[in-house]
Amino acid sequence: MFRSLLFSLFLCIAMTGFSQYREKPVISFVSRGFDFGNIKEETGKVTHDFVFTNTGKAPLVIQQVTASCGCTTPSWTKQPIAPRAKGKITVTYSATGRPETFTKTITVNNNSTESIVQLSIHGTVIAQPLSQAQAFPIAFGKVKLKSTIIPLGEMHKGEKKVMSIPVLNTSDSSITLSIGNLPKHITASVQPKTLSPGQKGSIQFSCNTSLINEWGFRSDKVVLVGNNDVASSKNNVLTITGFISEDFSKLTPAQKVATPVAALLTKQVSLGKIKCGETVKGKFEIRNTGKSPLIIRKIFSDCNCITAQLPQQGIAVGQTATISFSVRTGTSIGQKIENVNLMTNSPATTDLQLPVSWETIR
Q1: pTM, whole model, 2 decimals?
Q2: What pLDDT, on a 0 to 100 scale, did the predictor assign at position 1?
Q3: Contact of 221 with 275, CB cutoff 8 Å
Q4: How many helices (H) and strands (E) does the chain have?
Q5: Other Cβ atoms closer than 10 A to 318
Q6: CATH match for 132-245 among 2.60.40.10, 1.10.150.130, 2.30.180.10, 3.40.350.10
Q7: Is the pLDDT of residue 17 over 80?
Q8: Do the domains spanning 24-126 and 253-361 agree at the CATH topology level?
Q9: Homologous superfamily in CATH for domain 24-126
Q10: What are the pLDDT digits (tens) for 101-130?
């Protein structure tokens, strides 16, 4: 008897819950995703309506709609949607200034059986064609360029790196271009060498790092010469930059195990108080904990107030070296922290930084 009553009570509760569930609103979308395809950046804003129907038996209320990005703006039907009635969520995406492939999520909070619904939009924004002023903002007289900086990026020792920049002749006559002041490790070619009025061309630079006896950041200045007039072209300076590093990608696992490892035994250096214009010396220790000689490729600082000398030879396995440096203060008063940076031939510890601090006083 007790079991029969308990079963009847459970059945009653279940049926009541099921009945309440069936009486709730149900949000049914035609689609929960939309592909805008390719959009021209100059189009600006694009819009799509996500249409839905309340297929439940109670009024549907959209409580809040939020987008995953400020570039996406949603609006929605604010009044309750009766059973079998339709509503919509309008999503607007701003393509201006966003030339890229995009995917954005829109979250819909509501009182239906599915209280949180996620919609999505995606597409690709095609960059707006640049005006001549935008494409060639740098002017060397009537010759215009995209930039005076040619960044070659990271270059492995022994590698050849090539990069081209566009150039435009805006004059009413032909201009013959050439590159002067080239260092031995850089070659350049202009195509075509002579630009007709209004014609575009390109300057290609090639850097052979095997001819550079240096590591780390490298900057070279060359001159763009017009019509072989070196004197009037002396201010047409182009800067070629790059960072020369060691290529460890070809090492075998056995070779990697046998490499050196650099360990800074000095974690930081505090030089205390230094008067303006004075030079103070400091030092730090570095140990080779690896399995082959450690070579310090370069010691440098982002501040030209710090100078250091490279060790005359490599650091043997298990040995410690002391490296001295000097700091020359300027006229700026107060606390100062700069890094002494080291480049090594160790794959595991290629770059090391040692903080150096002091206080400049009068």
Answers
A1: 0.68
A2: 47
A3: no
A4: 3, 26
A5: 10
A6: 2.60.40.10
A7: no
A8: yes
A9: Immunoglobulins (2.60.40.10)
A10: 999 999 999 999 999 999 999 999 999 888
For residue 306, what are its two tokens? Answer: 């710090």
pLDDT tens column, 45-77: 999 999 999 999 999 999 999 998 889 999 999
Write out the two tokens for 119.
């919609």
Under 8 Å between Cβ of 179 and 202 = no
Q: What is the pLDDT of residue 14?
A: 44
Spatial CA neighbour of 325 closest among 267, 265, 282, 280 = 282
110/222 Cα distance (integer angstroms):
64
Instruction: Give CA separation, 21 vs 56, 57, 62, 233, 250, in Å.
Output: 9, 9, 18, 82, 64
CB 184 within 8 A of CB 207: no
Report the C-alpha gap between 12 and 9 in whole angstroms: 5
Q: H or E element: which one contains 9?
A: helix 2-22
Domain range annotation of the chain: 24-126, 132-245, 253-361
Preceding peptide of 192 cis, ω within 30°: yes
pLDDT of residue 220: 97
CATH architecture of 253-361: Sandwich (2.60)
Question: Per-residue DSSP letters for 137-163?
Answer: -EEETTEEES-SEEEEEEEETT-EEEE
Q: Which helix (H) or strand (E) holds 281?
A: strand 279-288
